Amino acid sequence: MNWKHPGGRLAAALASAAVAVSGLTAAAPPQETARTVSYHGYQVRVPADWRVVDLERHPDACVRFDRPAVYLGRAGDRPDCPAGLVGRTEGLHIEPFAADRVAPGTARSRTGTGVASRDGEIRLAAEEAGVLVTAAHTDATEAHIRQVLGTARIAEGARPGKLPQAAPRATALAAGPQPGNFTGKGFDACTAPSQGAMDAWLANSPYRAVGVYISGGWRACAQPNLTAGWVSTQTAKGWRLIPLDVGMQAPCTGFSSRMSYDPATARSQGANAANGSVAAAQSLGIGAGSAIYSDIEGYSSTASCKAAVLSYLSGWTDALHTAGYLSGVYSSASSGIRDAAAEYDNPAYTRVDHINFAWWNGAADTNTGSYVPAGMWANHQRIHQYVGEVTETYGGVSINIDRDYLDTGTGSPQPPAKYWVDTFADAPVFASPTSTTPTGTLYAATNYVFCKAWGREIRDGAGNYNHWWLRTDPDVGPAGQYVSAYYLSRWGNDEARDNNGTVIPDC
Q1: Model's pTM, two decimal places?
Q2: How far apart are CA 107 and CA 102, in angstroms?
Q3: Dihedral angle, C-alpha 292, 295, 301, 305, nearest 10 °
Q4: pLDDT > 50? residue 191
Q5: pLDDT one-digit tens code per residue, 440-484
Q6: 330 phi and psi, to 5 degrees?
Q7: Which residue in 183, 250, 185, 178 sits closest to 214, CA to CA?
Q8: Residue 91 pairs with which residues in a beta bridge?
Q9: What is the dihedral of CA 32, 34, 36, 39, to 10 degrees?
């Protein structure tokens, strides 16, 4: 998780790993562009240029989907995953049945026909060969990975197995909101470390917080260790977690998964990402009151790109607040964080609760320098990623990490107060008080609004007008939109009061 995108250090290692793969047979492909890979009798045809990695022979190999590959076997306890991996293409992980690897949504299927994707992964159990298959993809590569799965066959001699019952959905919860009230050092890793690694680092390292990628269709690394039991165990032992979602990126980047330039669409995309992340957090036992950070990698900002990113984060924040979570953003201090600070008080956007900024200056503090004024996000609302991509060893366990310094708290805005108003007609709503593109409709009824902001004038031919816009959740369209106070059934020009006559507060 960083705003630089270096090449992977494991390219040579994985290339050599693909040369000889234990238990793998390669049939003569009918065409030069594809080859057949077999594991425990499960055969599938993949493009000839995909790497094939035997995890039994190379247990330190990282199961990563930022480049096409097939991984065979169970992932090792100490994978050598670069901390800075970002993005996803497509790939397969084929491994033996194991109860602790049966994820929610795993379907009994060899080819995945009709099986829905969840968070960028299609998870199958091929009982004819006793293997689990995880097919990672993006929106752009889903059709192709499904074509690959469609070639799956069962070879003679395969040993069938019965799908193990998934480990019961843990009722154990994280020990309080995450990261919670904490000041001190932490680290990010591309994949959640094994229990042995976490214990070794707890006993020997200066770190007490760890960033984990809990959701997002653009996660580069597999997360075989990340379960509700893992979360409960780590937090019970004293670790704090930094939950991260890596999804759509700024539209002005070259990444393949990008949010829309249209602010209303971007806001809706952010809300959808938040809803998916909340579901992931809840399945892991990371409860309400925790902060979840949207990972938006660095970009070259423009006015339209900034508007898209902040609209996405507004939808992200609104949806998280609705579910009782705090919102955070991880980005480069020089792009996403600086853009958020520039619009800190702009009522057109919903401000995130926490910032997690990448500024590799080597200083273990939360000083944002010239990027963000000291008075913004000043109430235990900061994480500083101050060093990137270093390998450190504690208790004999080496992990490639980014170093963080946290000053975080559980303080959060209370759910926004609702002010009840009568509206006399169905009214269009907009993403901001100055927008001219409708995003939905608020029906004529008694509705609630949260706050008011000054914007463009709405006027009729009878001399009635209003410049105030009221933030609300419309009947049609995304939450957190603005409706003109012109549609209030009572009060006068440029007034914005609720049904009791209380002046609606500023946003």
Answers
A1: 0.76
A2: 10
A3: -70
A4: yes
A5: 999 999 999 988 989 999 999 999 999 999 989 899 988 788 999
A6: -105, 130
A7: 178
A8: 69, 136
A9: 140
